Amino acid sequence: MKEEQIMRESHLGLKTKGGRLQVSENSFSPVVELHETVILPYTEQDGELNMSVDRSLREKVSANQKTYLRFYGWTPWAISLGHSQNSSTFDKAKLEAQGIDIVRRPTGGRAVFHAQELTYCIVTPTSGPKYNRYIYQKMHEAIGAALSQIQIKTDYQRKTTNLRDHYSSGLEKACFTSSARYELTLNEKKIVGSAQRNYGDVLLQHGSILLGPAHFTITDYMIFGEAKTPTETEQIKSRFNKVLRESSTDILTETGVEVDPISLSERIIGMFNANIN
């Protein structure tokens, strides 16, 4: 397979029409097409723009039946909520005071603190659940293979969190307190969290690859409404932090390696192309 060189530009050529964001083939420069897969190289922007681009890609896939694979970061940092998650569990005033966005993802799942991470989004035509599982697995295989290239050895999560027990425990607010099969782990702790949403014949999948430990501070912005006193609040927060650190980790904490998100995204693109074709 001929190697493609990916160059990056600092801005997005996004247009609006009738107040709605429009994404054209030239919105990201340049665009690399791999057998009907359009690769959108790494960019950084705020949370609302990131989510608007992903929603617009879903509409685009419905129209042209191509697959889009996109990589990005968050400036400023942001907390994203699952599409049906209650936003009242987070302190919006505190987030605003510290310059942190709060947005809603089109995908399901629970809250993610997007800070020291690489985010990906894949939007693709789908034929149903079997294909969705295929994409879920192939994306994690590509990420694992890319990390292996820089001597970071990951494994696959072999079991799924019992969601009934998890939700009844009050720990359901954050994505990285639970695991799903085929998600990637490092030293038996989750380092990649992904979520899917099916829109008829279109699948949208998001994922966060944890490069540093900032995601642990998500509890600083949570509201523990079940607590009756400040002491109870601290007890619940401490319990939540303990579970979060037992169930998830990041590359910097585990290996001492600072991974460049742009370089990693380019490696994932190469492995995705090799795995899919």
Name the CATH class.
Answer: Alpha Beta
CATH architecture: 2-Layer Sandwich
Average residue pLDDT = 82
Overall number of structural domains: 1
Strand order, main sheet: write it out.
3-4-5-9-14-13
State the oligomer: single chain
Question: Unreliable stretches, pLDDT < 50, 5 or more residues?
Answer: 1-35, 161-169, 171-178
- Please tell me how large the radius of gyration is: 18 Å
Helical percentage: 25-40%
Number of helices: 7
Major sheet details: 6 strands, mixed
Distance separating the two termini? 10 Å
- How big a fraction of the residues is strand? 25-35%
Q: Shape, please?
A: globular
- Helix/sheet category: alpha+beta
What does this structure look like?
With 277 residues, this protein is of the alpha+beta class. It has a single domain (27-276), classed as Bira Bifunctional Protein, Domain 2 (BirA Bifunctional Protein, domain 2), CATH 3.30.930.10. The chain is 32% helix and 25% strand. It has helices at 47-64, 92-97, 129-149, 163-168, 230-247, 251-255, 261-276, and strands at residues 15-17, 20-22, 32-34, 37-45, 67-74, 78-81, 101-104, 112-114, 117-125, 155-156, 184-186, 189-190, 192-199, 202-210. The strands form four sheets. Strands 3-4-5-9-14-13 form a six-stranded mixed β-sheet, with helices on both faces. The protein has a three-stranded mixed β-sheet with strand order 7-6-8. Strands 10-11-12 form a three-stranded antiparallel β-sheet, covered by helices on one side. α3 crosses α7. It is globular, with a radius of gyration of 18 Å. Residues 1-35, 161-169 and 171-178 have low confidence and may be disordered.
